[in-house]
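Section 5: illustrative case.
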């Protein structure tokens, strides 16, 4: 690597940034990826999220690259260009102020972290738009996809995971199994006919 650092001077950083930097929940995981896998390119960060079995809001390169530029502008990361790379790729590392921002983000418990919006919950609220058979088929299909997600997480587990990575995988699998148990309860209630609230007039007319 060359010594061509891509960052703001320390004096400029300290003058521009307050003690509380306030990472958003979109920025936190991205900066965390730089910290955990540094030195890493912006493309490498994007690949981490696209390859992850967990869905998220950082899967688009169009989201990752601007965020990396903002981190550099705010002094959270510093980069070096690869001297022998014709594309002059920049590999990024967290700065001290970036690590401080991450620590503050980790320590903060926000109300928005407690109960997240779940698309499956929203879809269950609209089961009345489906016929009885369609509802049961949807639950069976969704449970199958959740089981596939568990398999994907287990497949991606490494023989020697980084610190706390195994705990995160365990949390993901536990959450997925809880969702599957919840879908089972809905399925049995539907099968018993105790949740027959069909809101679709076409279904009501045909009795499906």
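Designed sequence:
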């Amino acid at each position: 690597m060359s010594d061509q650092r891509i960052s703001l001077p320390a004096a400029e950083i300290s003058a521009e940034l307050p003690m509380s930097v306030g990472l958003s929940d979109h920025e936190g995981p991205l900066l965390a990826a730089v910290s955990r896998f540094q030195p890493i390119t912006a493309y490498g960060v994007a690949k981490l999220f696209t390859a992850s079995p967990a869905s998220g809001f950082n899967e688009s390169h169009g989201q990752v690259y601007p965020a990396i530029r903002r981190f550099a502008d705010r002094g959270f990361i510093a980069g070096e260009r690869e001297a022998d790379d014709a594309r002059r790729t920049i590999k990024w590392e967290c700065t001290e102020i970036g690590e401080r921002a991450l620590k503050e983000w980790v320590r903060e418990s926000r109300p928005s972290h407690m109960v997240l919006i779940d698309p499956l919950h929203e879809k269950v609220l609209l089961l009345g738009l489906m016929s009885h058979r369609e509802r049961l088929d949807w639950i069976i299909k969704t449970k199958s996809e959740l089981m596939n997600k568990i398999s994907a997480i287990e497949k991606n587990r490494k023989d020697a995971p980084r610190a706390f990575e195994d705990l995160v995988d365990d949390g993901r699998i536990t959450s997925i199994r809880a969702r599957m148990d919840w879908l089972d309860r809905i399925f049995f209630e539907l099968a018993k006919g105790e949740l027959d609230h069909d809101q679709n007039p076409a279904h009501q007319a045909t009795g499906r």
